[in-house]
Amino acid sequence: MRTILNVIWLVFAGLWLAIGYAVAGIICCILIVTIPFGIASFRIAAYALWPFGRTVVRDPDAGAFSLIGNVIWCVVAGVWLAIGHVVTSIPLFLSIIGIPMGVANLKLIPVSLLPLGARIVDND
User: Fold this and answer.
1) Whole-angstrom distance, CA of residue 88 vs CA of residue 39
2) Under a CB-based contact definition with an 8 Å cutoff, are residues 118 and 56 in contact?
3) Within 13 Å and on the Cβ side, how many CA atoms surround 27?
4) Percent composition of the chain: helix, strand, coil (DSSP 3-state, to 5)
5) β-pairing, 54-58 with 118-122?
6) Which side of the chain, N or C, has fewer Cβ within a 10 Å radius?
């Protein structure tokens, strides 16, 4: 079932969201100071391509630099990516088969706002 949902997700939402994260990652990797944001963005892009069967876990030992980085990320890119998730989830909720994908899209909002100090792991 996860594979079917992931393929449908990839066609209707995942590809566009992953492109958005990849563009944000490329922009962040242009400057040396923002490379950690770029790496986090690429990691989330892979998660946005294939989200079913994986989850986000917060690292309790992330530290103060993660907090500062998350504030900067939220202001610069996180809000725009979260808006993209909300806009993408609205048409998905309009169909019965899209409801699980809309919920998965909303599940990506916290990691799009605060990516540093988060790990993406398998549900298994």
Assistant:
1) 23
2) yes
3) 10
4) 70, 10, 20
5) antiparallel
6) C
Q: How far is CA 59 from the centre of its chain?
A: 16
pLDDT at 63: 82
Q: From the CA atom positions of the chain, what is the Rg in Å?
A: 14
The helix (H) or strand (E) run that includes residue 98 is none
Blockwise average pLDDT, block size 10, the chain, 124 residues: 86 87 90 89 91 87 85 86 88 88 89 88 84
| CA 70 – CA 122 distance, rounded (Å) | 23
What count of other Cβ atoms lies within 10 Å of the Cβ of residue 51? 26
Q: Give me the pLDDT at residue 46, please.
A: 92
